[in-house]
Design a protein that fits this description.
10 helices; single chain; mainly alpha; 84% helix; globular
Length: 253
C-alpha cells in the first residue's frame, strides 16, 4: 500500500505544481492595464495556494521549488497591497523560476523536462482563459478581444505541447518501443490510455479552441466560457494520462 500512496503523492504534487506554474506562465500574456489588478491578484493567490498544497504533500521537493514559492509569495503580496510597479518584471522571474524547478526535478532527461514545462503551460493557459471568461461578469465593458488573446495563447500552448510530445517520443524512442514490446501488462491498457491522451488531451481541446474563436468573433462570451469549461476537464484528463505514461512507462506524453 505504501508504494501506491507514494506514487499518488507524486502525481498530486506534479499536477498541482504544474497548474500553479502554468497560471503564472499564462498571466504573462494578459494585460494588467486592461483586465485589472483583481484578476492578477486572484490568480497569484490561487497559484500560491496550489503550490503550498503541493509542497505540503511532498516536502522533499522544497529545495527545488523554494525560489519559485518565495517569488510567488512576494508577487501575491504586491498585488494584494496594490504595489504594481515591479510586478511586470517579477511575474516573468516567477515564471522562469517555476519552469526551472520543473526542469530540475525532470533530471537529465530533456524529453521529460519539455513534457513537464509544456504541460504546465497548457494547464495554466486553459484555466486562465476560462476564468477570464467569468471575469466579464465582474468588470463590465471588458474588451472581448482579451478573451481572444487568451484563447490564442491556449492554441499556441497546445501546438507547443504536441511538438514537445513529438520530440519526446523521438528522444525516448527506446522506451517507446519497449512499452509496446514488453511482455507484462495487457495491450488494451496501453491503447486505452494512449487514446484518451490524444483524443481528450490534444485533439478535442484544439477543436474546442476553434469553437471559442468563433464565439469570440460574434462576441458570445457566455458560450465561449462554457466551451472553455469543457476544455479544462478534457485537458486535465489528458495531462493526467500523460503523467501515467511518463511515470509508469517512461515515455514523455
Amino acid at each position: 500500500m505504501y508504494p501506491l500512496w507514494k506514487e499518488d503523492v507524486r502525481v498530486a504534487f506534479l499536477i498541482l505544481s504544474q497548474i500553479s506554474i502554468g497560471i503564472i506562465l499564462a498571466l504573462i500574456a494578459i494585460s494588467l492595464d486592461k483586465v485589472g489588478r483583481g484578476f492578477f491578484s486572484f490568480h497569484a493567490a490561487l497559484a500560491l495556494s496550489l503550490e503550498a498544497i503541493a509542497l505540503a504533500l511532498d516536502r522533499s521537493r522544497m529545495p527545488a521549488f523554494a525560489p519559485y514559492g518565495a517569488s510567488l509569495l512576494i508577487l501575491t503580496v504586491l498585488y494584494q497591497v496594490r504595489k504594481l510597479r515591479w510586478t511586470g518584471t517579477l511575474i516573468r522571474l516567477t515564471a522562469l523560476l517555476g519552469a526551472a524547478a520543473l526542469v530540475w526535478i525532470a533530471g537529465p532527461s530533456t524529453a521529460d523536462a519539455l513534457a513537464l514545462v509544456s504541460s504546465a503551460w497548457v494547464l495554466g493557459a486553459v484555466l486562465v482563459a476560462m476564468n477570464l471568461g467569468h471575469w466579464y461578469l465582474v468588470i463590465r465593458g471588458l474588451p472581448i478581444d482579451l478573451l481572444g488573446v487568451a484563447n490564442r495563447r491556449l492554441i499556441q500552448a497546445l501546438v507547443l505541447r504536441i511538438a514537445c510530445i513529438a520530440i519526446g517520443v523521438i528522444l525516448a524512442r527506446e522506451a517507446w518501443a519497449a512499452m509496446w514490446t514488453a511482455a507484462g501488462g495487457p495491450m488494451w491498457d496501453k491503447v486505452l490510455f494512449l487514446t484518451v491522451r490524444v483524443a481528450f488531451g490534444l485533439a478535442a481541446p484544439l477543436v474546442l479552441s476553434w469553437m471559442v474563436h468563433e464565439c469570440v468573433k460574434i462576441k458570445s462570451n457566455q458560450s465561449a466560457t462554457g466551451i472553455l469549461y469543457v476544455s479544462v476537464v478534457f485537458i486535465l484528463i489528458g495531462e493526467l494520462s500523460g503523467l501515467y505514461f511518463l511515470l509508469h512507462r517512461g515515455v514523455p506524453l
